[in-house]
């Protein structure tokens, strides 16, 4: 096993507007991925969007806004950079960008390489389609559980004749044996639909669906306990679609739904999910063209920092 490299945080002491923007201002890994514990990576792809495109621009703007992040968490006092080695792995590069199945294969190939290096990926999307090829790489050997925060279940069957869209990754992942649906919880689900197909598939397959009305009724602490009960001690993937938040906080997204989670509730929720057996995580569906203020990307960057602390603490506890 390669010796763990120390995270170089010198860039974090400089003015935020200087230097080449990377996620959280950590070093860009280049081609040498040895000794890295957590890889921050962008997947600039939105070929599965069903309405408002723009999430392809998400990783670049999240990198820019992530310059606001600092090192030590003010609640947990976790400093992820002291615990583990963190690097920016760059973006997935495509040669088949307009060939949907081919683009998904290219994403899978990169994440298989990440897994092969023993790196835990924290991904900035891109639309939610990207979670399927990521899971194909990370869950190839055994199905994993999942904590999924979203306005939508993303378990629909088809859209315009295609089974691959941002509305279907977790149906496909379940049918391909990548997810154990009995260890999946979906939090914040809401919004009218033209078909009940997605809700029905999630519930009939055994997923725990926490509609937003239940979330509001029982509160964050109860949802945290339910999430921990559902996923248990086994390997788990964390997927956070920013449309799970109310669009007052994240207007720059493809499928906004009012009546959602607040940013403070989201932070409290994530902080209640410490010490789970994470195999990776993503934050997706940031579409900067719909939010010229940059606030949606700032929220996404902050969520990534919260998740980074979760991953770092877990990796450190294994040692």
From TrEMBL:
PROSITE patterns attached to this UniProt entry: ARGINASE_1, ARGINASE_2
Keyword vocabulary terms for this entry: Hydrolase, Metal-binding
InterPro entries, A to Z: Agmatinase-rel, Ureohydrolase, Ureohydrolase_dom_sf, Ureohydrolase_Mn_BS
EC number: 3.5.3.11
SUPFAM superfamilies assigned: Arginase/deacetylase (SSF52768)
Pfam families assigned: Arginase
Recorded GO MF terms: agmatinase activity
UniProt entry tagged with the keyword Methyltransferase: no
Family, similarity comment: Belongs to the arginase family. Agmatinase subfamily.
Classification via PANTHER family: ARGINASE/AGMATINASE, GUANIDINO ACID HYDROLASE, MITOCHONDRIAL
Name by which UniProt lists this protein: Agmatinase
Taxonomic lineage: Bacteria, Pseudomonadati, Pseudomonadota, Alphaproteobacteria, Rhodospirillales
